[in-house]
Write a structure and sequence with these properties.
Distance between the termini: 157 Å
Structural class: mainly alpha
Order of helices and strands: HH
Shape: rod-shaped
Number of strands: 0
Number of helices: 2
Length: about 130
């Protein structure tokens, strides 16, 4: 059984009133005013939430900038440490060269000493044979 056009028009005309009656017996005008007030409060709260979110994003941006600055500072520190290591490497190279020079001189002195001892021993043996 289908509804007639008159029935549909009647339902549309009185639907708002029926819903208002179901809403704790409030008259349609009061119900509409309450709905508008609620909508205004919801809009204000949404606006407030947007502002809070915007502030949160701004704070996050500031925090990211601070973290980025810290990383830049750490990079500079690592560069300084790297330069110090290079200086230490140069110093070790200089010390190595000094030790190499000392070892060469020590080897020469040792050879001179061995030669002196061998020559002295040979002279002593030769002198003992002739005496």
């Amino acid at each position: 059984m289908a509804l007639a056009q008159e029935d549909i028009a009647f339902i549309k005309q009185h639907l708002g009133e029926w819903l208002a009656e179901q809403s704790l017996g409030r008259p349609p005008v009061v119900y509409e005013i309450e709905l508008r007030e609620r909508m205004v409060r919801v809009e204000e709260e949404l606006k407030h939430q947007r502002e809070l979110m915007r502030q949160g994003f701004e704070q996050m941006d500031k925090r990211f900038e601070q973290v980025e600055k810290r990383f830049e500072q750490m990079d500079k520190r690592f560069e300084q440490v790297e330069k110090r290591f290079e200086q230490v490497d140069r110093r070790f190279e200089q010390v190595d060269k000094r030790f190499d020079g000392m070892l060469k001189r020590h080897d020469q002195h040792f050879l001179w000493l061995v030669g002196f001892i061998a020559t002295s021993a040979a002279l002593v043996i030769a002198a003992m044979r002739y005496l």
